[in-house]
Amino acid sequence: MCLLIFVPTRFHLSESVEKAEYELHENNVRDAGYRRFLGRLATPLLALLESGSKGLDFGCGPGPALSSMIEEDGHEVALYDRYFVRDESVFNKSFDFITVTEVVEHLSDPQLELERLWGMLREGGVLGIMTKLARDREAFASWHYKNDPTHIAFFSEQTFRWLAEKWSARIDIVAADVVLLTKLAA
After folding, report:
1. What span, in angstroms and rounded, lies between the C-alpha atoms of 179 and 45?
2. Which of 84, 141, 161, 163 has the fewest Cβ atoms within 10 angstroms?
3. Percent helix, strand and coil across the chain, each rounded to 5?
4. How far apart, in whole angstroms, are the C-alpha atoms of residue 27 and residue 152?
C-alpha cells in the first residue's frame, strides 16, 4: 500500500495563483544557508555519480540553485520547470540522474510525473527526491507543511518504499526528507 495523502482536486490552486506563490520564493545559489539546505540532497547524490554525468533538475524554479551546485562538481544539468523553464524537449531524453527538490508535494498527478521521470532514467540512474515526509495521522494533524496551499501530495517513507518495490529500485533514505531511488539492471 502506498499511503500517499492527496488533497482533492477541488482544493487545488489555479495556475496563476500557484505561480504567484512560487515567485515569492528566494532561491539564491549564493545564499550559504540555501546551499546547506540543498546539500542534503546534493552531497549524497554527488557521491553516487560518475564523472561527467548528465542530469535533469525537474522543478528547478526561477533560480536553479541545485543544478548550479551539481554543475560545479563537473556534471551537466538540463532544466525543467512548469512555470519558469518549460522546455518540453527534456522529456525526450534520458539521464544519469534526476533531481526533484521540494516539488513532489506540488504535483497534481504524482503517479504520472514520477513514472515519466523514472522512464527517463538510464540503468544505474538515480532519482533524488527531497520533500518532507508524513509520519503518522497524529503528526499530520498539527504539521505545518500541510498548511501551504500549494502542497497537495504528501509522501511518507512507506510511499517511497512502495515505489521502490514497484520499480524494483534500490532505495536509500539518507535524511528525514531525502530519498534516492536507483534504477537497477532489468
Report:
1. 10
2. 141
3. 40, 25, 35
4. 21
CA distances (Å), origin 89, targets 13, 38, 162: 26, 26, 29
Please give the backbone phi and psi of residue 84, each rounded to the nearest 5 degrees, phi first. Answer: -115, -25
Please tell me the predicted confidence (pLDDT) of residue 3: 87
Q: How far apart are the C-alpha atoms of 79 and 13, rounded to whole Å? A: 24
Burial 22-39 (b: 16+ CB within 10 A, else e): beeeebeeeeeebbebbe
Taking the C-alpha atoms of residue 71 and residue 138, their distance in angstroms, rounded to an integer, is 41
pLDDT in tens, 43-71: 999 999 999 999 999 999 988 899 999 99
Contact 170, 164 (CB under 8 A): yes
What are the residues whose beta carbons fall under 8 Å from the beta carbon of 156, sequence distance 6 or more?
3, 4, 5, 133, 134, 135
d(CA 162, CA 140): 20
Using CA atoms, how far apart are residues 108 and 7, in angstroms rounded to an integer?
Answer: 9
Share of the chain above pLDDT 70, in %: 100
* Model confidence, pTM: 0.95
How many angstroms separate the CA atoms of 107 and 180, rounded?
Answer: 18
